[in-house]
């Protein structure tokens, strides 16, 4: 490698990405190793609650490493509303498709991105993880392989091109990993959250496509009891949608909980602010009124209930504050639509349409026809994918 190329690489790692550094030349096809590391067929199953299907051939290629390339582990967050799922699909906007396009603009060559977890259209991700092989070729001396890009350079460069897209996806972390590391099959645990907003009025437009709106009141204690029934090692056939690729419906659900939390658009009243702040100004999450909707002591930054406005003559134009519940599911892997089907059941338990005894019957039925309709995609978030600490 020439001294000029070395100086350029060092400089790139110390400054923001410049789009002029992208290779304007037509992309050339990457060479793949002649002996790909084929993954066992029994691992070709749904690793998450997500969407599109992927055939054995494309999944197997995820274990094949391009010769002389660096494999990167890439964490991304995205709002799933305008994506047709995570997996590549012809003539549709997908997470993988957008990422591959951004990488190609960065390095001037096509790449293949492999996700740890598949997500459906409309499902969001706080952190989905992918791996990608990148071979850094000298632009001045075609054929000369340069040292791999620093992960920080990769993150800034790819985000530069993602930002020019719809701006609804972003790389949050990049690390170099071993040539045989597979984002999907090395995952030890996946965590999902599902948001529900409870209240008679329509949610704020700022909450659009971010939660499932339930107009009825929810009994959180009944929902917690239902969660306890589902946790553990079970045959989850009743929560397995048609099209699931998993060879077995038996899974171990390590955690299923429901918790009431602050609404996303939470603007506290003056009284609530006084209860939330400690003497040093830091937040203290306490005070029963924080979860209420009375709006007592409200000011211009608060929201109040419809009842307070009509009966107490409080300020015109205040919105009802919805109660917000988060269902958390944790396991190594999930069946196709398992989480959304479980949340659909928890919802009808919360409204009183089903009992905890019904939950046991539905689980024992071992058929998806026994389960209530599944929850919509908009409330589901892939929160985290965990790996060995060495990564």
From TrEMBL:
Return the Low complexity bias intervals: 1-11
Q: Name one GO molecular function term.
A: RNA binding
Q: Which GO terms describe its biological process?
A: tRNA pseudouridine synthesis
Check the record and name the Pfam families matching this protein.
PseudoU_synth_1 (PF01416)
Name the EC number(s).
5.4.99.12
Q: Report the PANTHER family cross-referenced here.
A: PSEUDOURIDYLATE SYNTHASE, TRNA PSEUDOURIDINE SYNTHASE-LIKE 1
Name the UniProt record assigns to this protein: tRNA pseudouridine synthase
- Organism annotation: Lolium multiflorum
